[in-house]
Structure formats: C-alpha cells, structure tokens
Amino acid sequence: MWTILIFDAVAGLFLLWTAFSLWHLRWVRRLPALEKLTAADSPSSALPEKLIRCSVVIAARDEEARIEQTLRHLLAQRGVELELIVIDDRSTDRTSEILRQLAKEDARVQVKRVEVLPEGWLGKCHACHLGASAATGDWILFTDADCWLKPDVITRALKLAERDRADHVTMSPGTVIESVGAQAWHLLFLTSLLNWFSGVNRDRPKSFMGIGAFNLVRASAYRQCGGYEALRLTVLDDMKLGLLLRRADKRTRAFLGVDDVECHWGTTVWSMIKIMEKNYFAALDYRLGLALAGSVFVMFIVAVLVLGLITGTAAGLVAAFSPLSLILPAAILARRLGWSWPCAVFVPFMFPVFLYALLNSTFVALRQGGIRWRETFYPLETLRAGNVR
After folding, report:
1. pLDDT digits over 89-141, tens only?
2. Measured distance between the N- and C-terminal CA atoms of the chain, rounded to whole angstroms
3. DSSP, res 210
4. CA angle 333, 339, 341 (to 5 degrees)
5. Alpha helices in 95-149 (DSSP H)
6. Per-residue pLDDT tens for 23-47?
7. What is the spatial distance between Cα 369 and Cα 31, in angstroms, rounded to a whole number?
C-alpha cells in the first residue's frame, strides 16, 4: 500500500510541476519588437525625441576571443545615447591591447584597468562597482564581455521600461548550442526558472530576478538599492541585484533573450556543469545541509522512478513515465527559443545530470575551502560572511 502512495505522490509531483510550468509560460516571452513598442507611444510632437543616455558596464578578464565584437555590437546600438565603460580586470592576454585600440577609434569607449583586486571584493563585483561609479547615464546596463546584442535591443528595453514603469529589465542569454543534450539542459534550466520570470512580470511582491547577460537598471534605482557596494562578495551577483531592487520596491521585467542577447555560454553539457561549479552551492547560500537534503530528495525521486519501471504495476508505470509530462512545457519553450521541439524529449533525462552538477559544485567548494573564479581564490568563510540573502 505504501509503495502505491509513494508512486502516486511522485507522479503527482511531476504532473503538478508540468501544470504550473504551462501556467507560468503565459508570462514568459521575448522582448516585444520595436514597432509594437513604438506604436504604443503617445503621438509624437513636432520636436525630435530626446535620446536616453545609457551607460554600459562590462567587466572583462582575458576576453580576447570575443570582446572586440561585443563592443562593436554595442557601438552599433540605435536610438540611444551610449557610453561604454569597460573594466579591464587584470587581463593577461590581448584584452588590454584590443580595448585601447577601440577606445582610440571611438570616444564613447572608456577603459579602466584594475591591477590589484582590493581586499573584500570578488573580481567581477569590484569591476562592476567601478564601472557603475563612473556611469553618467540615466540607465546602466550590466552585460558580459562575450554577449552580442542586436542593434535595437537597448532601445526596445528602455521603451518597455517606460511603458511598464519598470526600473529594471533583464533577459536570459541565447546561445549557439552544440548538441541536443545541451539544448535539453538549457530547457530544463529555464523551466526551473519559469516561476521567476512569471513572478516579476506579474509584479508578485516577493519575486525578483536578474541575469548577468542583460541587467538594465535605472541609475537612480541602482544607487538607491545599494548596487554592487552591497554585492561585493556575492557570487550570484546578477540575481541578487534583482533581489536588492525588489527590496527597494522597484519593478522588474524579464524576457527570453534568444538572438537579442547572444552569449558564448554553456554550449555543451560539460561546459554547463563547469559553469555551475561555482553557482549551485552559492545558490544554496553555501548551506551544506540544504545541499545534502536536496541531493537526497532528487536521488529518492530517481530511485522511485526506476523502481516503478521495474515493478511494472499500473501505479509504478504512471510514476515512471510521469516526468515525460515535462516535455510539453519544454517543447513550447523550445519553440520560443527558435529550436526544433524534439530536443524537449530529452529534458526528463537531464535530472541525473543536474544532480551531479549540484553535488560537484558542493564537493569542489568544500574540498577547496572556497571557489576559484577567473584565477582568483575566494575562501568559503569569506563568501558566507559577505553573501546577500
């Protein structure tokens, strides 16, 4: 009798997850086209529209492969008055040389060099803080050194913010995926975030979100919430910036970036595991008990699914095949990302990989006594003390 109850509970868990995912998908969309946003504007006057000044802040460390194209995509932005503030964070490759040349070519590019990381800071957080401190725009866009933006994306985000009276617009990055497995990983990852997208887009009181590929924030709101000064030792700085803004009663809007914000990020399953090596344990606020409890729970679910398949009973088979229900929301999400829907079939089989990624992140952090990020080591006790919760 108890086995039937367990099988039913596990099946119900996945079916409920599927139902909630389908419901949340109503609020998970791409950033509207410029024509649609412009049509919603009030009738224009005879005077030309004043361009909004936006400061783009980029933290760059050893980014010679993509930094030039990243900046050229930004310099091609239309409909916005732009300044680019690039923080060269102790680069040892050709990044510094490339940045100097671009600054000579275009006066909108400002380059600041960090030689020594101050005590009590993460490298990226310090770089973003320096960039934001120098920003003179009405808005600040934090983006990554390997992100390529469409020419109208900043203007569209600014118009959307004006329309929705938002202080923060964020977008998940699109990427060129090298395998079906990596597509399935990204789909499961985004499926786990659907309630976050939905929550901020519905203005739910406790909802927040922030994604490092595209974090556009009103400068006054950024300074009011404390900004990177408050995030100096926070690994998940992009998401926690959203948390600070929510605590300051600021409104966020979140969208799927797709090809609007294209990053060279997590193109294979193994690269995603390595990327998440510093993130997953940090997402649990470095709480070992929570990491172990989560791992045991996932392993229990996987064991029940296998047991259900082995028993061959009606209840067991329903439980064993219940994760397949997630293919439906994943397929819808795949179409919105511009992918062929069959890759969604592999989403249920990514759970063991996610479990491994969580265990790997926890084990590596504990074994090292901290995390190593861009060739700099940060002790675990320091990260715990400075983490924003």
Report:
1. 999 999 999 999 999 999 999 999 999 999 999 999 999 999 999 999 999 99
2. 42
3. -
4. 65
5. 95-105, 123-134
6. 999 999 999 999 999 876 655 545 5
7. 41
